[in-house]
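Posted in: Protein Modeling Q&A

I'm a second-year student putting together a small comparison for a lab meeting, and my supervisor asked me to include a predicted structure for Sec-independent protein translocase protein TatB. I've never done this before, so apologies if this is the wrong subforum. The sequence is pasted below exactly as I got it from our records. If anyone can share the structure token output, I'd also love a short note on what stands out.
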Amino acid sequence: MFNDIGPLELVTLIVLAVLVFGPDKLPKVIQDVTRTIRKIREFSESAKNDIREELGPEFKDFEFEDLNPKTFIRKQLDNEDLGLKEIRNGFDLKKEMAEVTDAVHSRDSDTSSSSSSGASGGRVDMTKKPETPDRDDRPPFDADAT
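Accepted answer (user: helix_wrangler)
Welcome! Here is the predicted structure, written out as tokens:
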């Protein structure tokens, strides 16, 4: 439960508890806290059992930890019935990426050869300066409109 509390933090909590509750009341407070934690655990276990009974016999292997998405996915990936390992092993990402890059490079070489023959194929040449519109094409400036 307290896996991430270090020794210094534990000593600090004990000293703080002694200062807040005092050495006389501290044992009673500890008993009350442990009793409350025990009741909460009993309540949660009874709630889990009630839910399992209501779900019926088809959910007898149901665990509430499976509701955590990470646990569910890990459990499903370990399941051999699904055949996910065969699918994963049959999929070669490097080969697929090589095929895609080859297709893209062949398309680029095809379009560059067609663009050198005169057809631009919808591509924009970024080395050219854009054409500036003539001054006569602009609408007149209206100072009152702004």
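A couple of things worth pointing out for your meeting: Residues 7-62 form one domain. The first helix runs from residue 7 to 55.
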